[in-house]
Write a structure and sequence with these properties.
single chain; Dna Ligase, domain 1; 7-stranded mixed beta sheet; 13 helices; 15 strands; 32% helix; 21% strand
Length: 433
């Protein structure tokens, strides 16, 4: 089937988009065709999913290891976590559980993909279903799995529980379930309004946890869901493991002591993928180094020395690791060379001061490559200009198999250092050209 013309693409998108939209109060730019990936890039994306799943499995092994020399690994990841959550981490019922849906966020650079985050509770699953469905019907050979996510959710009778903050994603989820089942999305619940009897009624079910473990709004019924998961009375996905959601893991992959262990446990093929994917990083730990030691690649022995870095030397990114509201989305991300010297110094001071509760990491900045960005203007004409892109591949992790379900491209104007689904962003699925 010949791909549709831009006019037909625009008319079809406007006709098929649900009246309430897919995201509450959010808009984006549509494109006349999917974002093109090479066969080499698609093959790389198919390797990245299994490598990241194995990465999480090894991280869990390190976390629960009884080897004394690995004790620091869990100690770092447990910082700032409440006791009830640490008990959940040790629950036999949640051990070895993996997220059903896994979405890394990847920057496209001149040197290949670089990962910024691993999300085990991602939004956009309804969006990628919608885009793959519409563009696929218009003759574009989009990258997709054997089933839509909605079909997987309906077949397994997944319930979906949102927090207030995540409720912006409720329209896309309800569309996804309604399209897959032909019925209204009755499986979506809002956590603050969840009653204790609602939680108990979910016994034996799989629940898509659209709320963060740190969520301050987590009420008694939401906490009951977590208790039931720990007792094995229901399955939460992503599983209630805060250490899976910490950016610390990415910095710890580059730890000189741990890196050989990572490679050995991952296996050569997965390690080769992650060595290219994960930027070099450091944990912003205020504990002083001995005078004869330095931080690798920075060649400094005290974090205060970084305050004097020039703008060129500040091509670094400071990030809150996780388990707090500022770690969500692009919040808590600070690009060093975009800050003044005083702002950079304050950022480092704040990061080091927060260490006992909310650890930060530092990573080398990966510059995004310029790519063509084609989108519809408000008048419906096709505009083409340079852009920078974040790719979000969605994987279904199921029974030992990790399947690529689709790839969302978020293309932003080239002056944006933080690429996310802003109003000026073009959101399209990907295809192999």
């Amino acid at each position: 089937m010949k791909p549709a013309s831009p006019d037909l693409v625009l008319r079809t998108l406007e006709a098929r988009l649900p009246r309430e939209g897919l995201f509450r109060g959010k808009t984006w730019r549509a494109g006349p065709e999917p974002f093109a990936l090479s066969s080499v890039q698609v093959a790389d994306l198919r390797r990245i999913g299994p490598a990241l799943v194995r990465f999480l499995e090894v991280a869990e092994d390190f976390y629960h290891s009884r080897e004394p020399e690995l004790g620091f690994f869990r100690a770092l990841l447990d910082q700032g976590k409440p006791d009830w959550l640490l008990r959940l981490h040790d629950s036999a019922a949640v051990r070895r559980q993996l997220p059903l849906v896994l979405r890394p966020d990847l920057l496209w650079t001149d040197d290949g993909f670089r990962i910024t985050e691993i999300d085990g509770v991602p939004g956009g699953i309804g969006m990628i279903d919608f885009l793959n469905l519409v563009y696929g019907e218009l003759g574009f050979d989009v990258i997709r799995g054997r089933q839509l996510f909605g079909e997987v959710f309906v077949e397994r009778a997944l319930a979906v529980v949102f927090s207030r903050e995540a409720s912006d994603y409720r329209p896309e989820t309800e569309w996804m379930l309604r399209h897959a089942s032909g019925e209204p999305g009755t499986q979506t619940l809002l956590e603050p309004d969840l009653r204790m009897e609602d939680a108990e009624a979910l016994a034996g079910r799989i629940v898509y946890r659209f709320f963060e473990l740190w969520d301050e709004e987590l009420g008694a019924a939401g906490r009951r869901l977590l208790e039931m998961a720990g007792a094995g009375n229901l399955t939460l996905t992503g599983p209630p493991k805060a250490f899976f959601e910490e950016k610390l893991l990415l910095a710890l992959y580059r730890d000189p002591f741990l890196h050989p262990r990572w490679r050995r446990e991952l296996g050569a093929a997965h390690a080769e993928v992650l060595d290219r994917l994960i930027p070099f990083g450091w944990v912003l730990d205020p504990e002083p180094l001995p005078p004869h030691a330095v931080y690798p690649r920075l060649e400094n022995w005290d974090w205060s020395e970084l305050k004097e870095f020039s703008q060129e030397q500040r091509r670094l990114v400071a990030k809150v690791s996780g388990f707090c509201s500022s770690a969500w989305g692009s919040r808590g991300v600070h690009v060093g060379h975009d800050l003044s010297k005083a702002e950079w110094a304050k950022c480092l001071d704040d990061a080091l001061a927060s260490f006992p509760q909310n650890p930060w990491i530092l990573q080398e900045f990966a510059a995004s490559a310029r790519v063509p960005n084609r989108y519809f203007s408000e008048g419906g004409t096709v505009v083409e200009e340079p852009g920078v892109v974040r790719l979000s591949p969605y994987y279904l992790v199921d029974g030992g198999e990790t399947a690529l379900q689709g790839v969302l491209a978020v293309v932003c104007p080239p002056d944006k250092k933080k690429i996310h689904g802003m109003t000026e962003a073009t959101l399209v699925p990907c295809w192999e050209r």
